[in-house]
Amino acid sequence: MNTIAIFYTDAIGENLARILIKNKYQVVTDPNLIAGQSASSFEGFGVLPMDINQIAKKADLVISMVSSDVIFDVVMQYLEASLKTKRPAQFVDMSCRSVEQARKLIALFEKSNVFFTNASLLRNAENLSDDVCIYFCGEHRHVFKKTIHDAFKFVYLGTEPLLATAFELCYSGFTKSLMASLFETAFVSNYYGITERLFSEFKSTMPGAFSDLEKSAINYQRDMKGKCQELQYYNSMLSSENIEHSIASATERIFNRIVDNRLFRKIESADATLVSLIKRLK
């Protein structure tokens, strides 16, 4: 039985652990590296506690899905532990939210005795299921995919170690630009008082797309500040490479307007429809 270590701080990491356990993997974690998770929250569904020094020696693979503010703390602790063993487990990062973070990680691992893989998930925690697809890149792809090949789908993006982060940022930027277009339309329709009639027409003429937008919009209102931060990372990537980013910049402005003016106030799930949300935008 392969042993997979996961460091995580949110529901998506927990769900990934559940899928691995379902597929007969032993999943371990160092409780000291998953701030915010109580012992009962991970031991209750089968994740076993293990010291990071033991993880470096015994795990077949390490996956990091921690919040962006502790990425480097976790990495430095793992690299220190890796010095105590001849063949430390390969480290897979799914935490990076910017290419700057990814570059720093790559530089750290290039100086170590640990193989590094950059990977990403595009689905949110609520939708993470058995058919989840992991996008990954870098030269050390074989051990990663081979170790958990029967638990997930995989798409290899290439040898460049930044590609998984760039891929996730591009996907995020595109989906958010679609939402920004919807929000901007709401500013206009609310101004003229035609919101309900207009969005009823959208629902009638494009039911599938409307349903997807409704699900996304409700999720957006829960964490608009987080979405704004993701857009900042996306814009930073584009501007640093001197790539056209006028749509991304406009999207960030619209999102910041919603946050700064508190246009999305917390609403009860029973009232969480797209129209009820959209009508809050002024």
From TrEMBL:
<feature type="domain" description="6-phosphogluconate dehydrogenase NADP-binding">
    <location>
        <begin position="12"/>
        <end position="127"/>
    </location>
</feature>
<dbReference type="InterPro" id="IPR013328">
    <property type="entry name" value="6PGD_dom2"/>
</dbReference>
<dbReference type="InterPro" id="IPR008927">
    <property type="entry name" value="6-PGluconate_DH-like_C_sf"/>
</dbReference>
<dbReference type="InterPro" id="IPR006115">
    <property type="entry name" value="6PGDH_NADP-bd"/>
</dbReference>
<protein>
    <recommendedName>
        <fullName>6-phosphogluconate dehydrogenase NADP-binding domain-containing protein</fullName>
    </recommendedName>
</protein>
<dbReference type="GO" id="GO:0050661">
    <property type="term" value="F:NADP binding"/>
</dbReference>
<dbReference type="InterPro" id="IPR036291">
    <property type="entry name" value="NAD(P)-bd_dom_sf"/>
</dbReference>
<dbReference type="Pfam" id="PF03446">
    <property type="entry name" value="NAD_binding_2"/>
</dbReference>
